[in-house]
Amino acid sequence: MALNLNYVARETGQNLIRNPTLTVASVITVAIALTLAGVALLVGEGVDKLAGKFRDDVQIIIFVSPDATDEQVSAIEASLEENPEVADFSYVDRDAAFAEAQELFEDQPTMADLLRPEDVPTSFRVKPVNPDIDSVLALRSIFQRHPGVQEVTSAAEAIRAIQELSQKLSYGVYFAAAVSSVTAVVLIYNTIRTAMFARRREIEVMKLVGATNWFIRVPFIIEGMAQALLGGLLAIALLLGLNQVLFRSLARNEFFELFRQFDFANSTVVLQSIPLVLVGMVIGAIGSGFAVGRFLDV
């Protein structure tokens, strides 16, 4: 028996409105699962942009010990010139370092008055060839052991801490999304099973007149996918709302400078959401496929 598109559309629509409570519950659960997954993707993208900004501006600062001799300072400079991992460097003498410190403490006049030129260490500002964290840490360790060096600092630890925090957050959100997805599959399964049970007499008649299992299955599978599609569209709306209310508010808040990279365009949110909607439709197909298969096997 050949499938007819009008028949499939009519049966799917009737099934969707036959059990409104279960249908709404399934749609909302799918929307929650996909929204959580979308948030994880957006957070990951924001952290990648933030880490990229750090990498573009990464700089190693080699603070020279106050009691370092001129020979030791010259040796540090020579090592920097000879090291193939150093792209460029500059030396900040005591006058320049003191001027920077005064600018740093301009809002704290008491500290600025107490500050003396000999209190501020000189330093080398180094731009590495490779801004990757491991390369920066390796370069730091080389100069940390150099005579005349007081301390070597960089933003590598900050980048790594941000990435690790992002991973933990993403794992937590993805876990919640996975639990919600399983719940959505179960709800769609029960919705389709209830719909098929309500039409069991009609299904028996269809089988008696020669309808194949696939002829019976397709409208119910399409119903599950339609529920997931509605949930996916709702998830896109929720993500667009979260982008406006949460991410953009944080990005534009002067007290949360780290979140400046979390100002996502609406087009970015929609593009991130399209694969999630497809995943949601797969979830719907799985739930309805299990329900139809078990019902027709009975």
Shape: elongated
Main sheet attributes: strand count, strand direction, barrel closure: 4 strands, antiparallel
What is the number of strand segments? 4
Order of helices and strands: HHEHEHHEHEHHHH
**What are the segments in which pLDDT stays under 50 over at least 5 consecutive residues?**
none
Distance between the termini: 22 Å
User: Percent helix among the residues?
Assistant: over 70%
| Helix segment tally | 10
Question: Average pLDDT across residues?
Answer: 76
Oligomer: single chain
What structural class is derived from the secondary structure elements? alpha+beta
Task: Characterise the protein shown here.
This protein is of the alpha+beta class and 298 residues long. 72% of the residues lie in helices and 8% in strands. The chain contains ten helices and four strands; from the N terminus they run H-H-E-H-E-H-H-E-H-E-H-H-H-H. Strands 2-3-1-4 form a four-stranded antiparallel beta sheet. The longest helix has 43 residues, at 156-198. The radius of gyration is 31 Å and the shape is elongated. It starts with a helix and ends with a helix. The mean pLDDT is 76.
Quick recap:
With about 300 residues, the chain is α+β, with helices and mostly antiparallel strands. It is built from 10 helices and 4 strands; from the N terminus they run H-H-E-H-E-H-H-E-H-E-H-H-H-H.
Attribute tags:
298 residues, alpha+beta, four-stranded antiparallel beta sheet, 4 strands, elongated
Topology diagram in text:
Blueprint: H1 5-18, H2 20-56, E1 60-64, H3 70-82, E2 86-92, H4 94-104, H5 109-114, E3 123-128, H6 133-144, E4 149-153, H7 156-198, H8 200-208, H9 213-251, H10 266-297
Antiparallel strand pairs: 1-3, 1-4, 2-3
Helix pairs in contact: 1-9, 2-7, 2-9, 2-10, 6-7, 7-9, 7-10, 9-10
